[in-house]
Amino acid sequence: MTKRALITGVAGQDGTYLSELLLGKGYDVYGVAGPYPGDFPERVAVSNGRLHAIDADLTDMESLLAAVEASRPDEVYNLAGQSSVGDSWTEAITTTEVNAMGVLRLLEALRQLAPEARFFQAASAEMFGNAAETPQRETTPLHPQSPYAASKTYAFHVVGSYRESYGMHASNGIMFNHESPLRSLQFVTRKITDGVARIKLGLAEELVLGNLDARRDWGFAGDYVEAMWLMLQQERPDDYVVASGEVHTVREFCAAAFSHLDLDYEQYVRTDLRFFRPADVNVLYGDATKACTVLGWEPKVGFGELVAMMVDADVEQLRAEGA
To answer: Which residue blocks in 167-302 are alpha helix, DSSP H?
Structure first.
């Protein structure tokens, strides 16, 4: 019997990679694209009836009930949300309404209409904040330091509550930074790769960034969606850190990106205090031993390969646009 999956945030980076993964495994996929559908309608049109669009909103309980009733999912992946840490300072209420209360609404819709469906929540390493230990693992205390992180922390706990209270197969993937050519330009990694491509092609003279010394654990989104799927194939639900196990500074990301195009980042990159956050997290560095051991998962794309992939994609895109 063909499995059915419901993905919120299907038009985003993770939703795109995950939907392609599931379609490749023979699933029928129902996707909630949200207000920015991107190329999702075109993907639906060429999917031979296996990729379906559903209208729903995490702030609207009735629409979520209708989406669950229409899709009758075996698996649900909640990837939707306000995903920018920086924007959460200016959109704190909206961020909380979507990222926290939206997860509660979706869990409640499943409890009422599809309690046997397996549920994945995209939790975030930002929940750890400036953590008490490095690297961070599933047992590391949570210390959210932004409205975004606080909203994700609420969602993380409510998933655990529904799992324990109602016996639902609900799992959190504590996702460390994962990037790709599909990453939005609001994220620093894509801002860097787009910036260096523009400089190389003569479209820009400099790149302005914030804290170059922030350290992050960056992996490839295409690898990380496989971990999401593996969580829902387990007999028992649980929470897992998904990370590359390597940590690099924003400065190192700049150096790798510019070097890939034979440029010296120090000649083009400058910092501006406007791009520093009110409370920044110094280092996020994950220990994915549990995911590797229990799920049999491992990241395949390394840091250098990821940076080169993103830079090449931005150069190609700009050239296609006539640069």
So the answer is: 188-200, 221-231, 250-260, 289-290
